Amino acid sequence: MIDSKKRGALILALRRAIVSEFNVEDWREFGYLSGQSDYIQRHDRLLHSLHWQDPDYGDCVLQALERFTREGWDVVDQLINHPKLTSHLLNEIPDLSIFVRRDIQSVKTEAPASLSSGDVVLLALNDAERLMHISGPVSAVDRLHTALHGYFRSLCADAGLSMADEASLTALFKALRTAHPMLKNLGSYDNDLVRVLNGFANAIDAINSLRNNGSIAHPSEDLLGEPEAHLAVNATRTIFNYIRAKVGH
Asked: Is the separation of the CB atoms in 130 and 139 below 8 Å?
């Protein structure tokens, strides 16, 4: 974690970089990837002030950054490693290089203007494949987790399921499994399929723990081994493919 004395300088550097580089679609994509989509979309001024180039946009960005820092290091880490922001930040704070993933320049994601949450997961899956070839599967665990979290939150919102802002990946999946119209009644084999889905729920809970404790999402010297990281990546892929096939998007 960055020294607390440097946190203020980092926040201000992030604000300058975001004001300079981010557009509306960058914010929306980042929201899905970080699990902050609801906050970003519901902020009463952030996207509006950016669109109209209002003078209070910088203050809105600062409000968002202050919230993200309260959420934990993960969201800040994603901003530090965002392709549009990294070079700006390193120019101002060279010490941040220890937090920049070495593969960040090797993995490019060209996002279409209208990006659905499912598309974000597909992009993450594609990036995971490249990351596994570039630097091993460990780097892919965090990328997939954040994308899957945003996807599940979007599905809950589309289905009218009210979820707390801090709802975990596991809680979102449980809500979908029990209340989404395409998942709560699975036909003649409902009992057996529910057992399978319960197994998925346990896998998601484990992936959540792996991501928090054993991936590059948080500074740690005890990272996942490659076979275990492969397992987490493949489990995430299986869960996503099934849910997307059932709900149709």
From this structure: no
Domain boundary pick from 100, 125, 153: 100
Distance (Å, whole) CA 201 – CA 198: 5
pLDDT digits (tens, 9 = 90+) for 136-147: 555 567 667 777
User: What is the distance between the alpha carbons of residues 229 and 132, in angstroms, rounded to a whole number?
Assistant: 10
What pLDDT score was predicted for residue 177? 86
CB 118 within 8 Å of CB 149: no
Query: Distance from first CA to last CA of the chain, Å, rounded?
Result: 37
Tell me: do 94 and 119 sit in the same domain.
no
Residue 97 CB neighbours (<10 A):
11
Structure tokens at 203: 């896998």
Task: Look up the domain containing 216 and give its range.
Answer: 111-249
Cα separation, 144 vs 237, whole angstroms: 8
| Mean pLDDT of all residues belonging to the chain | 77
Neighbours of 174 (CB within 10 A): 18
* pTM (predicted TM-score): 0.50
Q: 101: which 2 tokens?
A: 């993933």
- DSSP letter at 224? P
Q: Which residue has the tokens 């604000």?
A: 15
Query: What would the two tokens of residue 22 be?
Result: 């981010």
* Total Cβ atoms within 10 A of residue 108: 9
Enumerate residues 6+ apart whose C-beta is below 8 A from 117.
32, 37, 150, 151, 153, 154, 155
